[in-house]
Specification:
It contains 9 helices and 12 strands.
Length: about 450
């Protein structure tokens, strides 16, 4: 089995050229043969008329001498009268190309033409001695052979030049494919920085552009993977380090008895923090792998939003937040359990990043075949430069050393993934230092 596309292309081109040349040779030979027969027919008729005039002037004996003189020429000449053969060129057999009827018809005055190889012309004429029929059969075999040789020579030259050009052009055609193959192997080895510099505008150029796009996306994915591992390691390391340090202090008796309870409470808090982080990581991993159960149904969205807000009452009351809830009866077709996570995370952010004595506003309304929910909080706001990245995993606006709220940067990533699963949309608008607004659009 031939595996090289270079060899396959050469063989395909070679077969096409051979078939084309054979067909061209046959068609051209047939065309020229017909053209030559037509040209030679006119010439033979004119020659025949000349021979008739010679016969009339020379008679039988003189005409026989004339036929002997042209015996070396590629002609066969036959002269018939009403009684039969009168004369013919020497050293040629009696022709079987014409019958007695043909001879009688020509003697009677008809002109006979056989316009296929071998060409045959019969001309009538009359002298004082009676009516005659002159038949001339030129031998065109040598002429046709010469034409075929010329055509074959020309076609072989075309074959040689065409094959040489194909070998060259195919190499240029296959060269970008070889580079793409090499780049693909490099990509498989983990070299995501490799790029193809193919300037073709054809399908190969489009393939190279697609490869470069794929490499860029894989490079981004690899960078995200590295960042994810680094972030997870950092987030896991912090509570584990704290737990280990306090456990060692308790074990070595470095903690006073009155402080032991406080240390145990800190260990419990760090353990809960660690548990919360791993749960969010697992939840996000399940969502991104599309392994989370997805059971959409029609349910009352306004009731869900209200119940979720009541569940978190202790949190927003602790910060003395003013709640402005104004949503009419709304039905939505979605997975109620997954949407609970959306509202929990959005409410949690609205409370966590709000200021003391601030305000949370929840609005909702129908919009054609969709429902729109708006959650606004009077908090710190999000800088415009950070807005494009807030739905990325582990992305946090506040730096780790300055943040005063516990956040892993996973909540909005979970929200975005769940909204995407519902073919919905989520938008964010923020005025730094004043407010932040999330707008969610879902199908009814």
């Amino acid at each position: 089995m031939i595996r090289s596309i270079y060899i396959k292309n050469i063989l395909n081109y070679f077969i096409v050229i051979i078939v084309s040349l054979i067909l061209s040779f046959l068609i051209t030979s047939l065309f020229f043969q017909n053209q030559i027969i037509k040209i030679r027919e006119t010439e033979v008729i004119n020659q025949g008329k000349g021979m008739i005039n010679l016969y009339k002037n020379l008679g039988d004996k003189g005409f026989d001498e004339y036929l002997k003189s042209i015996s070396s020429l590629p002609y066969e000449v036959y002269l018939y009268d009403q009684n039969g053969l009168v004369s013919k060129t020497p050293n040629v057999p009696k022709s079987s190309e014409f019958s007695k009827k043909t001879i009688r018809d020509v003697i009677a005055g008809d002109v006979y033409r056989k316009e296929v190889e071998p060409l045959l012309i019969g001309l009538p004429f009359e002298t004082k001695n009676g009516r005659y029929a002159l038949f001339i059969k030129p031998n065109l075999t040598e002429q046709f052979s010469q034409i075929r040789n010329i055509l074959l020579t020309a076609l072989f030259i075309v074959l040689f030049i065409g094959t040489s050009l194909i070998l060259t052009t195919t190499r240029f055609l296959v060269k970008p494919l070889v580079r793409i193959t090499h780049a693909t192997k490099e990509l498989a080895r983990g070299n995501f920085q490799i790029r193809l510099n193919v300037k073709n505008k054809d399908e190969i150029g489009q393939l190279a552009q697609s490869f470069n796009f794929m490499a860029e996306e894989l490079d981004k994915t690899e960078q995200m993977r590295k960042d994810f591992i680094a972030n997870v390691s950092h987030e896991l390391q912090s509570p584990l380090t704290a737990i280990r340090g306090m456990a060692i202090a308790l074990k070595d008796g470095a903690v006073k008895t009155v402080e032991e309870k406080h240390y145990f409470e800190l260990i419990e808090q760090e353990s809960e923090r660690l548990s919360s982080l791993t749960k969010q990581l697992l939840n996000l991993s399940i969502l991104e792998a599309n392994k989370s159960p997805f059971n959409p149904k029609l349910y009352l969205l306004d009731r869900q939003l209200r119940n979720q807000l009541v569940t978190m009452q202790s949190l927003w009351m602790e910060k003395r937040l003013d709640i402005d809830f104004d949503i009419p009866k709304l039905e939505v077709y979605a997975d109620e359990s997954l949407m609970n996570q959306v509202w929990t995370n959005l409410y949690s952010n609205a409370i966590k990043y709000n200021r003391e004595d601030g305000k949370i506003s929840i609005r909702g309304h129908e919009q054609g075949h969709h429902v729109e929910i708006i959650i606004r909080n009077t908090g710190y706001g999000i800088p415009q430069k950070d807005i494009p990245y807030i739905f990325e995993r582990f992305y946090r606006v506040e730096k780790a050393h300055t943040r005063t709220t516990e956040s892993y940067g996973l909540g909005l990533a979970v929200v975005k993934r769940i909204i995407d699963l519902h073919n919905g949309k989520i938008f964010v608008n923020s005025i730094e230092g004043e407010e932040t607004t999330f707008r969610i659009i879902l199908g009814k």
